[in-house]
């Protein structure tokens, strides 16, 4: 899972009312939820050369999203399923 700062969509998209106004920028927080071993905990990697200020509520939301992926990965492991990449957001 990745957390990135939104960047404006290309100006050409403005003519399409169904097009999004923003796109994800480069990820500066990347969370890895291991699905190959239920004993491993998620890890968060910081990828940034610049300082980023993350509001507390956004960080909480992101970590809740990460936590919500742990149980499905552990259940899949117990059932012998390979879920690698399935929960990427």
Write the layout of secondary structure elements.
Layout: E1 2-8, E2 22-32, E3 43-46, H1 56-78
Antiparallel strand pairs: 1-2, 2-3
List keywords for this structure.
extended, disordered C terminus, 89 residues, 1 helix
The separation of the N and C termini measures 5 Å
**Helix count?**
1
Strand order of the largest sheet: 1-2-3
- Decide which structural class fits the backbone: alpha+beta
- Give the helices and strands as they follow along the chain: EEEH
Tell me about the biggest sheet?
3 strands, antiparallel
- What average pLDDT do the residues reach? 82
How many domains? Answer: 1
Q: Could you say which overall geometry the principal axes of the C-alpha atoms support? A: extended
DSSP helix fraction: 25-40%
Strand composition percent: 15-25%
- How many beta-strand segments? 3
**Low-pLDDT windows of residues:** 83-89
Radius of gyration, rounded?
Answer: 16 Å
């Amino acid at each position: 899972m990745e957390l990135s700062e939104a960047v404006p969509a290309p100006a050409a998209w403005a003519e399409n009312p169904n097009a999004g106004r923003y796109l994800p920028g480069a990820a500066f927080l990347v969370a890895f939820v291991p699905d190959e071993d239920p004993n491993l905990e998620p890890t968060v990697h910081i990828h940034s050369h610049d300082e980023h200020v993350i509001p507390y509520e956004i960080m909480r939301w992101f970590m809740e999203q990460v936590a919500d992926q742990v149980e499905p990965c552990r259940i899949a492991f117990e059932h012998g399923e390979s879920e690698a990449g399935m929960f990427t957001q």
